[in-house]
Amino acid sequence: MRAPLPAWRLLAVQLLLTSTLAVASSHREAPLISNDPAADGTDLYAWKQGTSLVLVANYYPIGIPYGGPNYYLFDDNVLYEIQIDQSGDGAPDIRYQFRFRTQIRRSPLPSAGVVAGYDAFKDSFLYAFAGVKTATAPEILRYQTYTLTKVAGAGAQQVIVKDAPVAPDNVGRLTTPAYPQTEGSTTLDAITSSAIQTGLGAASKYKVFAGPRDDPFFVNLSKTFDFLDYSGKPNRDDLAGLNVMSLVIELPLTEFSSPHLGIWTTASRPRVTTRRPDGAVEASGAWVQVSRLGNPLVNEVVVPMKFKDFFNASRPQNDLATPTIVAIINNPELPQLLQAKGFIPLAPPAPRTDLVALFTRNTQGKATGEMLHINTGTDSTFPNGRLLTDDVTDVALKAVGGAFFTTFTDGGPATLPDGGGTFASAASTLGDGVAANDVPFLTTFPYLAPPHSGNPTP
Question: Where is the signal peptide, in residue numbers (predicted)?
Answer without folding.
Answer: 1-24
